[in-house]
């Protein structure tokens, strides 16, 4: 059966709710962690014994960054690519090494980024641009329309379609995260299982940090009139997460644009317990100047919570 026939058959079945139960068996995407049971449990980058099975804990990328953007427009509003009202958007889940350095594009056999950035690795190797099927198709092939729906609402690109951004995040970062290695899924590994699993994991980490709401709780809301100080953002977020995240600013440190939450994880990135840590990267926001946390262009956002 062709992929299209499979998909349209699935959609037909899903359209009749009474038949859905029982007839549709969606494939699982989780790894096989059986072998981790006889490994010690520890937070990544805090192990006192050598990690024997890199499927059980991310290594060497055990300093895990959950990152978000505050954009005011997408540039693709005409194609109905909008920002979610009252929410920062998901950027990614990155495997920094314990010292804050990082690896990128670690597996060219899982390279789905059409415009690799950087185009060339530090050692001079050119990263081959991808021109194949969209990663959105791979997610649909697993029947994960719920996942695609969430990604289309909260994992938003600027200046290019969302699926290109999702492909970039997987290829640049997940391929360097040991708990998403193909081998971790066992002999029955299904192609792109790791990709779906990574997107689920990135969203789970993102949901730990509702940045918009955390700031709003302290009266810090986007405004084109009021300005804030860096310490106001930091104090608010630290009071809820226990640590100071990295805050990124543009316009010479005066316009708030992004946040990176630093973490160690006990167990896997997929299912393990995260501990939030202070940023090891200095903020690019000015520590003295007034900082803008801009309101969005009204026509660039929509209330994702009201949508199906
Ligand atoms: C998981 O892997 C173990 C070997 O580590 C194997 O014995 C077991 O059958 C696998 N489980 C599944 C569900 O594939
Ligand atoms: C933790 O595990 C990593 C990866 O196996 C290893 O390089 C490192 O030496 C271990 N740390 C300690 C303190 O043993
Ligand atoms: C450059 O680094 C990549 C990824 O670590 C590696 O696969 C490749 O062999 C390296 N190339 C050279 C020329 O060292
Ligand atoms: C896509 O990439 C493949 C392999 O790199 C190449 O052979 C092919 O010409 C490319 N197609 C287009 C349309 O660029
Ligand atoms: C950027 O900010 C620094 C420190 O506030 C200031 O010294 C510098 O003049 C600014 N540069 C520009 C181009 O505004
Ligand atoms: C961060 O800022 C501190 C204090 O300004 C400075 O001592 C340190 O070198 C900076 N670290 C980096 C990585 O730039
Ligand atoms: C607020 O200012 C930003 C930056 O100039 C602009 O993009 C946005 O449209 C403005 N929003 C409102 C509601 O005026």
Note down, in words, how this protein is organized:
The protein is α+β, with helices and mostly antiparallel strands. It has a single domain (43-306), classed as Alpha-Beta Complex (Ribonuclease Rh, Chain A). It is built from 8 helices and 7 strands; from the N terminus they run ααβββααααααββββ. It has helices at residues 3-14, 17-23, 135-141, 145-154, 162-173, 193-206, 211-216, 230-241, and strands at residues 63-69, 83-84, 89-96, 246-250, 255-266, 273-277, 301-302. Strands 1, 3, 4, 5 and 6 form a 5-stranded antiparallel sheet that branches. The protein has a two-stranded parallel ribbon with strand order 2-7. The protein starts with a helix and ends in a 6-residue tail after the last strand. Residues 47-51, 59 line the site of one 2-acetamido-2-deoxy-beta-D-glucopyranose.
Q: Encode the helix/strand succession as letters.
A: HHEEEHHHHHHEEEE
According to CATH, the fold-level topology is: Ribonuclease Rh, Chain A
Provide the structure class.
alpha+beta
- What is the CATH homologous superfamily assignment? Ribonuclease T2-like
Largest sheet: 5 strands, antiparallel
CATH architecture annotation name: Alpha-Beta Complex
CATH class: Alpha Beta
Quickly count the helices: 8
């Amino acid at each position: 059966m062709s992929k299209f026939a499979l998909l349209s058959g699935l959609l037909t079945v899903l359209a009749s709710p009474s038949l859905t139960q029982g007839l549709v068996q969606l494939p699982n995407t989780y790894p096989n962690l059986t072998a981790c049971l006889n490994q010690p449990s520890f937070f990544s980058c805090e192990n006192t014994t050598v990690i024997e099975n890199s499927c059980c804990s991310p290594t060497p990328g055990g300093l895990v960054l959950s990152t978000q953007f505050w954009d005011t427009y997408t540039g693709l509003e005409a194609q109905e690519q909008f920002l979610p009202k009252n929410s920062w958007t998901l950027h990614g889940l990155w495997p920094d090494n314990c010292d804050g350095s990082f690896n990128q594009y670690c597996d060219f056999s899982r390279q789905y980024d059409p415009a690799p950035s950087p185009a060339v690795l530090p050692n001079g190797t050119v990263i081959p641009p991808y021109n194949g099927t969209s990663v959105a198709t791979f997610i649909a092939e697993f029947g994960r329309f719920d996942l695609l729906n969430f990604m289309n609402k909260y994992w938003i690109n600027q200046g290019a379609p969302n699926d290109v951004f999702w492909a970039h995040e997987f290829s640049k970062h997940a391929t360097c995260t040991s708990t998403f290695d193909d081998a971790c899924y066992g002999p029955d590994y299904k192609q792109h299982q790791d990709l779906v699993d990574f997107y689920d994991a990135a969203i789970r980490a993102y949901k730990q940090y509702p940045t918009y709401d955390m700031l709003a709780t302290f009266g810090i809301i986007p405004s084109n009139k009021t300005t804030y100080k860096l310490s106001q953002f930091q104090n608010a977020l630290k009071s809820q997460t226990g640590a100071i995240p990295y805050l990124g600013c543009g316009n010479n440190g005066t316009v708030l644009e992004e946040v990176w939450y630093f973490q160690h994880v006990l167990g896997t990135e997929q299912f393990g317990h995260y501990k939030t840590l202070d940023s090891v990267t200095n903020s690019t926001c000015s520590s003295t100047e007034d900082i803008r946390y801009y309101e969005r262009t009204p026509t660039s956002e929509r209330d994702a919570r009201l949508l199906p």
